[in-house]
Amino acid sequence: MQATATKQMANLENIRGAIAAKIDAAAFTSWISPLKFDICDGVLCLSAQNQFSADYINGVYSGVLGDVVAEFGLGVKITVAGASHMTAPVANDNAAQSYCPAPVKNENIAFDAFVESDENAFVVSACRRVAAGPVSFSPLFIYGPAGCGKTLLANCINSAATGRTIMMTGAGFVAEFSRSLATRNIFAFKDFCRNCDTFILDDVTALAGKRATMDEFMQLVVDLRVAGKNIVLTSNVSPNNLNGFDRRFQSLLASGLVADMAAPNATVCRTILMRNGVARDVAEFISMRTPADGHAISGIANKIATYSELMNADVTIDVATRLLGDTLKRVRTPIAMVRDMCEKLGVSYDAVCGAGRSRAIVLARQIMMVVLKRATNMSLTEIGNMVGGRDHATVLYAIRQIDKMIGCDLVLAAQINQLVAECHG
To answer: What pairs with residue 235 in β-bridges?
Structure first.
């Protein structure tokens, strides 16, 4: 009797080791290790702590578990601790499953609705290409600050894409995955997500820390890529800066095309306001005094339109100043900022705007470009015009050069921060 028990324990350890060799270490620790292993009548019985765990393990790892135990001449069954009569559905039960997604309001938005800037031309082109058909750079990972237009672009792809498109929010994917586990139709949910030509997930950060959902989504991305489908993901941060995601997941998300989006500049803000019926001079006034946030601009446009409708009056600059007193910032003109910085940096305004290439002039000019970028929501082209008509590429190069320098020059970093504060002042 004792010899038989010892042999069974050895078999269980061998089986556990074989399973561990087939599954990612983090997944094994999270899902398989907590299970109670037992062998009864030629079947490996795995006892889970709750029904959720049993359903998830059955849905994700049943194939691996079945292959491993078959090598030992056993079958496999997953049950819930304390309720051995409740057996979780097995992967090959052939039971017909149906999945009905929660209703989602789909907005039909054309790409023309997105106001494009020089900084965002690349990401918009990539989105148009995805909408046109299969691409080689899937997944397309779009990231940028709140209010830069990520969700709007995702909706544009959803509206314009050829073939079948599925678009979910990150929170929606978490909720639907959990619901499919609870209702035991996880396989139908898997089929639903994979039966598309383009899959869009808006705000991937909502998956952070949810191990089961992350594992399922990672497998979904892999399967869609293998099938040649398009995948579009959005986030507030780049893949490498995602919190709550392991390195393997970050690497997968960064394996396609990672494209950053810039916040709306003054030109974009002005265009958005004018498209919403705001007079040009009022739009110009507001765009230079609002935060670089598309959500805030939309709110301002709605407020102006509502005021005009309810009061039956046009909104002038004076009215806008009073109406938006809690939103508008008191700012100096960009030209005044540049002249003030010339004085503080010890260079002449004519030299900065001229063709001079001395080291001191070039450095001062580059510092001013960085300060204007941080202190205003001007476009790179507009910033270039403030320092002698430099083009977009020159301004971008200057910003990158200064960013490299301040990484090891604390004095320069403090000087720039001071100039930015004074521009806001």
So the answer is: 143
